[in-house]
Amino acid sequence: MKNNxxxxxxxxxxxxxxxxxTHNIASAQQTLINVGGWNAYVHLPWDYNANPTTKYPTIxxxxxxxxxxxxxxxxxQNGPGAFINQGWNGNVLIGTDSVKFIVISxxxxxxxxxxxxxxxxxxxxxxxxxxxxxxxxLTCLPMGVWAPTTFATGxxx
Length: 157
Known about the structure:
Strand order of the largest sheet: 1-2-6-3-7
Largest sheet: 5 strands, mixed
Shape: globular
Distance between the termini: 72 Å
Number of strands: 7
């Protein structure tokens, strides 16, 4: 009976260590940076550093009203950043090809940013990372649609 109890305790400790390690690995897949006063979590493809001339397709996510501000952890509560935290590697299977994306969760410091505030953030990100201009994909939650729409239409308000 004593051996069974020790074995059960050992398995329980291993189980919790495995969960802890899995969480840390997933969280480590993103790096928090500051882009002109806005928080951004950036996930780079696994082969990014090994291919210094390759430009990558990029997903840029804008959060909803509840995630806007300066609390960085809020920007990865939903959207692609949340999926990265849950273990997604940022790859998408298209036919038989695996496409590797740079995934950026960009957090405006206040709601409804004007195009004049969004454009410099994109320019800064493109100077920091090898983003393929022809394969930039913008996604968002409801309030977040404001930022990519004003950027795409060139609407300064």
